[in-house]
């Protein structure tokens, strides 16, 4: 799905009217939010770990060139190969060449959002190879030819009946009496289909949650074990990772691991946490014959030293979107690209341009919940505000919005006129709304009343009430 931000409002409206999607989103609050709260409550030092993790990331980003070089040296010392890729085209070309050199026909993939960003599947298919998603959620989306709607639960927008319908259409030999009443039934069907793919794949591609400079190690966390099978069974293992995944030491990685699962799924630890360093060596019983790391910039280095550098601390836990009221109302597809929710509202304009994705940082209530739950304390509302400023400076906001803001600014710079205007406006609305609690429609307020009622003002303006209370205190 490509970014085309002028359609964001249309996609959001369609999502709000999509009954199956709204049914799926009812799991939002009782799922991720409740589990995270319980997991955090069980770790008294959680807040202190957030500070430590933030500081580790800030230090790493300040010395990223040093740690990247150290990481690459250690990968090569362990027998691996590092491919430096400034752009998405470079990364696609590197992956394709590795696969072609291996004579690959089938390529299995562990969950990797960076591969979605790069469009790896389509690129491999265009060159005669079969990419196979092995994560359960990614697999059903591949069957349905849909993009992910969430960065850790890619099929979050689907209901059980959607899974059953998709399997019956794709797996045409299924008996009519085959039942899919429980998650176990879905897992069994997917496992049966994927087992032979794991055994026959020539190349396995995984993402990386962290890259450890000290040892040249990549770390991946999963709950299904598909990442382990993707790394160890094929002859060639490719790690796709963007440069900000770097951490200095094993101890630092363990700090992030303590935060990641608790923030993401509410677990103390993911079921599988796998450390990979190089290819199979002489005493090893299994593992790949070749180990490649494709290091991807694709716009990240341009964020260093700017007001958006804090975004590079992101560890892709999805806590921000799990607590975002906007994401909870419209889901992930409405955002139009790989990264939805608050983190996507900051990252997408950075990678694709505010001219193409300017609606995303405006899709926020600025409630601040995203920042309050972020395990590395990224100030997401402030970063979205920076994008709004950039959009305004480049005259990308609609003329009506610019005129309205200019009209408000004129009054805001003149306190006496502002107080008079708000006092008259409140009194007028109070008179017009006499006998009813709210307006269902109102001239010049159609953007508001189209989706919600406008309450009739009660009492005086905020400034008048504040002044009265201050006088009462003295």
From TrEMBL:
<dbReference type="InterPro" id="IPR009051">
    <property type="entry name" value="Helical_ferredxn"/>
</dbReference>
<keyword id="KW-0677">Repeat</keyword>
<dbReference type="GO" id="GO:0006089">
    <property type="term" value="P:lactate metabolic process"/>
</dbReference>
<dbReference type="InterPro" id="IPR017896">
    <property type="entry name" value="4Fe4S_Fe-S-bd"/>
</dbReference>
<dbReference type="InterPro" id="IPR024185">
    <property type="entry name" value="FTHF_cligase-like_sf"/>
</dbReference>
<dbReference type="Pfam" id="PF02589">
    <property type="entry name" value="LUD_dom"/>
</dbReference>
<protein>
    <submittedName>
        <fullName>Iron-sulfur cluster-binding protein</fullName>
    </submittedName>
</protein>
<keyword id="KW-0249">Electron transport</keyword>
<keyword id="KW-0479">Metal-binding</keyword>
<dbReference type="InterPro" id="IPR003741">
    <property type="entry name" value="LUD_dom"/>
</dbReference>
<keyword id="KW-0408">Iron</keyword>
<dbReference type="GO" id="GO:0051539">
    <property type="term" value="F:4 iron, 4 sulfur cluster binding"/>
</dbReference>
<dbReference type="GO" id="GO:0046872">
    <property type="term" value="F:metal ion binding"/>
</dbReference>
<keyword id="KW-0411">Iron-sulfur</keyword>
<keyword id="KW-0004">4Fe-4S</keyword>
<dbReference type="InterPro" id="IPR017900">
    <property type="entry name" value="4Fe4S_Fe_S_CS"/>
</dbReference>
<dbReference type="InterPro" id="IPR037171">
    <property type="entry name" value="NagB/RpiA_transferase-like"/>
</dbReference>
<dbReference type="InterPro" id="IPR004452">
    <property type="entry name" value="LutB/LldF"/>
</dbReference>
<dbReference type="Pfam" id="PF13183">
    <property type="entry name" value="Fer4_8"/>
</dbReference>
<feature type="domain" description="4Fe-4S ferredoxin-type">
    <location>
        <begin position="305"/>
        <end position="335"/>
    </location>
</feature>
<keyword id="KW-0813">Transport</keyword>
């Amino acid at each position: 799905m490509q970014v085309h931000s002028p359609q964001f409002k249309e996609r959001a409206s369609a999502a709000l009217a999509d009954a199956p999607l709204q049914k799926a989103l009812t799991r939002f609050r009782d799922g991720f939010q409740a589990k995270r709260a319980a997991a955090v409550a069980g770790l008294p030092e959680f807040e202190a770990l957030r500070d430590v993790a933030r500081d580790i990331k800030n230090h790493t980003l300040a010395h990223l060139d040093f740690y990247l070089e150290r990481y690459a040296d250690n990968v090569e010392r362990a027998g691996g190969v590092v491919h430096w890729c400034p752009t998405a085209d470079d990364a696609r070309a590197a992956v394709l060449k590795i696969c072609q050199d291996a004579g690959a026909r089938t390529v299995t993939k562990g969950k990797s959002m960076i591969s979605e960003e790069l469009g790896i599947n389509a690129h491999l298919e265009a060159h005669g190879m079969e990419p196979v998603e092995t994560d359960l959620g990614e697999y059903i989306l591949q069957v349905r030819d849909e993009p992910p709607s969430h960065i850790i639960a890619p099929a979050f927008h689907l209901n059980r009946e959607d899974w059953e319908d998709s399997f019956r259409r794709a797996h045409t030999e299924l008996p009519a009496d085959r039942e899919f009443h429980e998650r176990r039934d879905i897992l069994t069907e997917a496992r049966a289909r994927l087992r032979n793919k794991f055994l026959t794949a020539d190349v396995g591609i995984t993402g990386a949650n962290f890259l450890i400079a000290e040892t040249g190690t990549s770390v991946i966390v999963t709950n299904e074990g598909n990442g382990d099978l993707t790394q160890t069974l094929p002859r060639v293992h490719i790690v796709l990772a963007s440069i900000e995944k770097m951490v200095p030491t094993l101890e630092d990685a363990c700090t992030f691991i303590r935060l990641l699962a608790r923030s993401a799924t509410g677990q103390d630890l993911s079921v599988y946490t796998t450390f990979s360093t190089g290819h199979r060596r002489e005493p090893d019983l299994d593992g790949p014959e070749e180990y490649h790391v494709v290091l991807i910039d694709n716009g990240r280095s341009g964020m260093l030293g700017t007001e958006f550098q804090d975004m590079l601390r992101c560890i892709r836990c999805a806590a921000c979107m799990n607590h975002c009221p906007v994401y909870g109302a419209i889901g992930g597809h409405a955002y139009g690209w790989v990264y939805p929710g608050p983190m996507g509202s900051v990252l997408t304009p950075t990678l694709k341009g505010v001219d193409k994705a300017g609606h995303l940082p405006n899709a926020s209530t600025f409630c601040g919940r995203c920042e309050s739950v972020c395990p590395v304390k990224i100030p997401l509302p402030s970063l979205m505000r920076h994008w709004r400023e950039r959009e305004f400076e480049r005259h990308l906001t609609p003329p009506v919005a610019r005129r309205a803001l200019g009209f408000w600014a004129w009054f805001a710079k003149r306190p006496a006129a502002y107080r008079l205007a708000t006092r008259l406006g409140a009194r007028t609305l109070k008179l017009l709304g006499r006998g009813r609690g709210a307006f269902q429609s109102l001239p010049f307020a159609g953007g508001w009343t189209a989706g919600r009622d406008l309450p009739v003002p009660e009492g005086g303006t905020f400034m008048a009430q504040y002044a009265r209370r201050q006088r009462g205190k003295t």
